[in-house]
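# step 3/5: fold
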Amino acid sequence: MLAKSLIIFIVVGIISGFGIGIYTIDYKSNNQLVFVDGSSISIVTEKFDFKQNELIEIKIINSGTNPLTFLNSSCDLNITGLFGILIYSPVYPPVSFTLDPMDEVILSWDQIRNNGEFVSAGVYKIFVHGIDSDGNTVKKSATVSIWK
């Protein structure tokens, strides 16, 4: 007969694994690109998991029916760790531009931090935001994993 403590540990492990899986399911969402009426922006990467030092291409797509204005040509791109600490923000001239519906901009990140060092393995969030024709801010984020 199994000891009660072993059964308790197994049950707690199963419940914890299920809970963590539910919590992180949005990290692997396959719905990167959804077109909608109104204002919307989408971030699309070719995959979710990258090797260290691999170039990450990031497509910023206006997935709504309203044009979006960005304050610089990087679409106000920011890449952070999961806890919100800024890792990378490209430096582009502050030239605003408009992205019409279904248009896209392709940016790339070579996995180098703002301080010039390579990032370590982990999960990173990509943020962009623009302004629609009504002056409302439209935000979007996506998550990528970097592995050794």
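# step 4/5: annotate
The radius of gyration is 19 Å.
# step 5/5: archive (pending)
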